[in-house]
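Below is one record:
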Amino acid sequence: MIVSMTGYGCGTAQGDGVSVAVEGRSLNHRFFDINIKLPPSLSSLEKKIRDIVSSSFHRGKIDLYVCLNKQSEGAQLKINYENATRYYQALLGLCNHLEIREEVSLSSMTPFIRDIIEVQEAGLNGEQDVYWPLVEKAVRQAIASIQQMREAEGKLLCADIQQRLSYIEAIINSIGEKTSLLVGEYKNQLSARIAEHFPQLPIDPGRLEQEIALIAEKLDITEELTRIKSHFNQMKEFLVSDGQIGRKLDFLLQEIYREVNTLSYKSNNAEISQKVVEIKGELEKIREQIQNIE
C-alpha cells in the first residue's frame, strides 16, 4: 500500500493535574529526518520519543512539538544577583567615564533582563520519568493520526498514478501500431521519389527491398516498447505492494524516460514525436507524485 510522506496529527493526555499536548507533522523529504521540540522540563525524554518515531516512520521530515502544562505549579523566577551587580557597576562606570550626570536605575538595565532574571519551569529533571506515561500516550496518538492521513493521501496518489499509467499505455500501444505502418509508408515514399526524379530508371525490386530492410532496422523500436511495458508492469506491482517504494518508483520512472526519448529519436516521425511529448507531460506529473511517496 502506498503511503504519502505528508501528514498532520495531534494527541493529548491528562492526569494528576498535568496535561500533555503533542502536535506533529510529516513533510516530503529525500531522507529521514526527525525534529523534536520539548520544554526543558522534558528534555531527558527526547530519546524515548525519537525511538517511537523511528519505529513508526521510514522516510520524510517528521516534526513533533510537545507541550507540558502543570496546573498546580507555575513557573519560577530566579534572580541572578551576581549578573545584576556586574551590569549595574558597568553602567555606573560608563556614566562616570563619560561624565554623564544620571543615575543608573532598573529601567536602564532592562536590555539585560534575560541575564538577570531567569524563568525556570517547575519540575526537576529527576521528575521527568513521572511524565513519561502521559507523554508516550500523547505522542502515539499524534503519530497514529499522522499515519492515518499519510495512508489516506497515499490511496489518492496511487489512484492518480494508476490512471496516468493506463493513459500512457494507451499512447504507447498507438505508437506501436503506428510503427508497424511506418516501413510500408517509407517504402511507398521511396518508390514515389525514385519515380518522380528518375522516371526512366527501372526500379530493382531486390535493391529496393534491401534499402527498406535497412530503414526497417533503424525504425525498429520493439525492444524499447517491450522494456517500457515491463517497467509499467513493475510499477503497477509496486503500487499495490507494502514497504518503501518511493525510490524504486523513481528509478523505474527514470528508465521509462530514457526509453521514451529513444522512441522519439528512432522513429523520426512527427506524429510519434507529438505522442512522445504528451507521454513526457504525463510522466512529469507522475514524477511529482512519486516525490511524495515514502
User: Anything to note?
Assistant: The chain has a mean pLDDT of 83. The chain has three domains: 7-71+126-151, 76-120, 152-290. The radius of gyration is 35 Å. The helical segments are 46-56, 81-97, 113-116, 128-197, 205-219, 222-239, 246-267, 270-290.
